[in-house]
Prior knowledge:
The chain is α/β, with parallel strands linked by helices. The protein has helices at about 45-60, 75-80, 90-100, 120-135; strands at about 1-10, 15-25, 30-40, 65-70, 105-110.
Amino acid sequence: xxxxxxxxxxxxxxxxxxxxxxxxxxxxxxxxxxxxxxxxxxxxxxxxxxxxxxxxxxxxxxxxxxxxxxxxxxxxxxxxxxxxxxxxxxxxxxxxxxxxxxxxxxxxxxxxxxxxxxxxxxxxxxxxxxxxxxx
Length: 135
């Protein structure tokens, strides 16, 4: 089964309060959206955690082929092997993602502009707002 996800991580401060958001689609139809507050961390860790959460969920749903869209150029280029992962805080997340990807038939990781990732961005920011307001 082919699924796709749009992912985003957000941090207010770097590090600071952080959250993730993602959507999952099949054939252009929105299946689900998720957002969560993840505590105090950096924006790059939040981006990685959003990617990882969406990947795990797509696999739970039975995906064998996935496409992940992210507005984080760093994450996209590291997962695609263009950049090396030097930050020790990102290495475990990167390693876990790469291990999960070996279980799939195929995975495409594509960089998109923020404007083309607005729903995932809004979800991550919603989690931050709800956390701040105590919801």
